[in-house]
Specification:
elongated, mainly alpha, homodimer
Chain lengths: 219, 219
Amino acid sequence: MSEHDDAGRGDESADGRESRGQRTRLALQNAALRLLEGDKSFSSLSLREVAREAGVVPTAFYRHFADMKELGLTLVDETMHTLRDALQAARAQSRENTLGDAVASLARQVQTQHLHFCFIARELYGGRSAMRQAIRHEIDLFVRELALDLSRHKETENWSAEDLQMMASMLINILIATAEQMLEAPTRRPQAENAVIETAEKQLRLIALAAPHWKSAGR
Amino acid sequence: MSEHDDAGRGDESADGRESRGQRTRLALQNAALRLLEGDKSFSSLSLREVAREAGVVPTAFYRHFADMKELGLTLVDETMHTLRDALQAARAQSRENTLGDAVASLARQVQTQHLHFCFIARELYGGRSAMRQAIRHEIDLFVRELALDLSRHKETENWSAEDLQMMASMLINILIATAEQMLEAPTRRPQAENAVIETAEKQLRLIALAAPHWKSAGR
């Protein structure tokens, strides 16, 4: 096994080598994401396959990741970053603008970060439990943050903590279902995607209509 | 390869053999479902593994299924049957009783048909596209039937077809998310399951509150 069949080790000091190493690392991550866009789940990917798709020899893989598990958890980290950004942006929009803007903001992120969202959708239900739990944990954090946002709204300020949580989880579930349906829409048909987005916007508006009529138990 | 290492062929006429064949077929289906309860996706299961779990030799597999793909599609059929029954029961409850009864009815089905629902949740997002499409198709049919139900309700009778569809898909998405969260709840902890069910019930009640306040465009 040659030590020099690919980009240099990340811990070497020469800048050129470092950035080449970085590039290979990214190439491996992107190769895995591309392979997952089709019908495969992460657990059925082989190290050899990922290396081949990235255009490097299998031994080069080990300079960047200890094993496939480490690559998988790195992808969870990366894609969770994307999910967090997308939900933060949607949340900011819903605070400052309309719910429609929030949905549109999420939709833009799903479109530009297509591979990341494919990975999340696949692994949230189909993946190994370590990944599933990492994703689920991130979503739970988000539900809690959104519940806090809601508690500052006039329509929901008197709700119990439990009911704010119930509302927040419903809103997040709608956003997740929307992202999933966008991913399933016939590839890149803007019409189909728009219909999904429009439906989600209506669903959020419908729920907003209910808020003033809800009474939390004992309040 | 022996022809007689397992239960008889399904097309033999002796009743004993036929039912033994039937039993092996079911054993293979159940073996696959059990293997999928863990972290595996169907596409990563091998024929050998399924046969071993079912306690038969690999050649016996071929008397019942042409290949793993045929077994997979049989499982989609079977589990879709379960899903249809569960949604039908929930729909009947929501017509005759409260929304809470509808959720409770679905929850009972998820509990008793745990393996079937694990399979559906896994394959709906993580599976091969043929299976994903089969499940998605079944859900779409259901959304349409539910939209028809809704059109007969007083609160929604003046809604546009598009808006009835929007409402129905939201209700079904909530039921699906509920089933998924029940499956993810710490194994068989009734408390965690109950919390999920209670939240879903509130979400449906909240949406029902909004219905009388919604105006379809142009109506």
